[in-house]
Amino acid sequence: MAVSKTNKKRGALGKGLGALLQDSPQKGESGENHPIAGIFEIPLGQIQVNPFQPRTHFDKTALEELAESITVQGIIQPITVRKLAENEYQLISGERRYQASKMAGLDKIPAYVRLANDQQMLEMALIENIQRENLNALEIAHSYQRLLSECDLKQEQLGDRVGKNRTTVNNYLRLLKLPPDIQAGIRDQKISMGHARALINIEDVDKQLSIFKRMITEELSVRKVEALVKDLSEGKEKKEVASKSNTDPVKKYEINKLQQKLASHFGTKVSLKADQKDKGEIKIPFHSTSDLNRILEILDLI
Question: Where is this region: Disordered (predicted)?
C-alpha cells in the first residue's frame, strides 16, 4: 500500500531530533541515492557555522573548559553537518564543540554528514539547542516561537518535538509578551523564569516594571514577588467589590475561579463578567497574529 509524502511527514512528528536525523538513504539534487549514515573526519576550515543557530551567546569560560577537555579526551560526541559542495559543509548542531575544537587547536573534527534543506536545518538547530544546551528561558521562548512560525508547526506538534506539554510551552511563549526591559532581565539572568511568570499576571505595564525594578534592587525571591502580585490583584478586586456591593459573593467566587481556569487553558489573561441575570461576556485578548492563531488552535477552529 502506497504511503503519501504528507503522511510520511506527519508520521515523523513527535519523534524529536531523531526523526529528522534518521539514518536512511535520501536522494540528492541529481536524483541518485546518497547514504547519510557514517562519521567522517572533516577539516575545521571546511565547515561553516549554522546561520539558523538560535543561541546568541556562548559563555567564554565554559568554552575554554570544553576546549581543555577536548585537548585531553578528544571529541566524545561528533558534531552534525550537511554537505553544501565538495569540501564545503555547514553545521547543523554542535557549535560549542566546533568552537571549542578550534580553541583547542584541532585541525579536524569527527562529524555526521546529513542531507537537509533550510527548514530542516532550522528545526534541527532549534530542537537540538532546546534539548541539549543550557538556554535561558527567553532563548527557549524565542526558539518555540520560531518553530511555530518559521517551521509551520502547531502547538501540539511542537510539544511532541521538544517533549513538553502544552501548558509548559504556553508559559514560555507568554514571556514574549513582557516589556523589553523585563525580557532583557530574563536574558541576562537577573530574574528567573519563576519571577517572570509572576509578572505576566499583571496587566499594567508600569506596575510590571515597578515590581521588576524592586525585585532587582531588593533581590526578592519568587515567593515574595508572587505575594506582591497577589496583594496587587486582591487590592484591585476589593475596589471592584466595593463599587458593586450588590454582587453575590458566592457567584463572584465562582466567576473568579472559572476565569482563572480559562486563563490557564488559553495561556493568557481572560476577562469573564456576568450580571445578576447571568448575562455577560468572555474576552480573550491576543497580541499578534501568531497569538491569535494559537488561541484559535486551542479552540479547534483552525
Answer: 14-34
